[in-house]
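hey can u check if this looks right to u? its 148 residues, i copy pasted from the old doc so theres a chance i mangled smth
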Amino acid sequence: MKQILLLLSFTLLTALSYAQTVEPVKWTFDTEKVDDKTIAITFTANVDEDWYIYAQDVGDGGPIPTEFTFENLKGCVKTGKVEEVGKVIKKYDPMFSMNLKYYKKRVQFKQLVTLNAKGGIIEGYLTFMTCNGEKCLPPTDVDFKFEL
C-alpha cells in the first residue's frame, strides 16, 4: 500500500512540474546602433510550433496584448512607439469571438531610443499571452535590462 501511495505521489508531482514548465515562447534581447545617438533595442519572441502570441493592439474584450513597460530610463529617451516586425496574421478567433492579430514562429518588437549621454540604462518588463487554438496560458511578465 505504501508503494502504491508513493508511486501515485511521484506521478502527481511529475505531472505538476511538467505542467508548470510549459514555455512555448522564448525571448531574446538585443541592441543595434542606428547612429551616434540612436539605438534600436529589439525584443525577439521565438514561438513553438502551434502556439502564437498576440499583437500590441487586439481590442477590448480579447486576450492580453503584448505590452512593454519601461520603468527606468537613464541617459536616454524613447523615440516613437514599439514597432512590430514579423508576419502578422489577422483572423477570427473563436475562443474570443472576435478578429485578432497575432504572430506565429517569430516576431520582433523594436523600440528606438535616443541617448542623452555617453551611455544609458533601460529597465522594465514586457507582458504577453500565448495560445495554441485549444488553450491559453496566463499572461506572463518578462523583465528586461539594456545597458547602452
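The domain at 23-147 is CATH 2.60.40.1250 (Immunoglobulin-like).
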